[in-house]
Amino acid sequence: MKSRINKKKTYLIVSLVLILSLGIYKITFGSQSDPGTQGDPLTTVSYVQTKVNELKTYIDNKISEISSGNGETFKIVELKAGEQLIGNAGTEIILRAGTVKAIIGEYGGISDITQGKDLEAGEIISKNHLLIIPRDGRGAEVVTYGTFMVKGKYTVK
What we know:
Elements: H1 2-30, H2 45-68, E1 75-80, E2 84-87, E3 92-103, E4 110-112, E5 117-119, E6 130-132, E7 138-151, E8 154-156
Antiparallel strand pairs: 1-7, 2-7, 2-8, 3-6, 3-7, 4-5, 4-6
């Protein structure tokens, strides 16, 4: 009977030692991966610096795109009495000097952004107001003379 108990103790001790050693092995060597790979939770300084430099370059490019805009600036256009300034859709116009009337299209007038209203046919355009042409074919007809600041595509008739 004593040998039977000794065999059970021995079997139990060997089993526990085997289980513990397998557990220790798994903890120590089983979850290791190469440094710098996706499996490694720690990153190297060079990896972080590379990613930071990539991010800086990306941000700098985006900032330069935004600050350069579309590259278009206001142009000074001077017209005589009877001439017309016809803008394409999206053209911005500011009357700086002179007397000028609005030319509208079949779908409405010109957007006076400064005043917050729609200019009607023949209405006198106020100086220093930002006007936006919503559709092609609208613009301004000069009564006396006109000095404009224009951003966008336009034609003079």
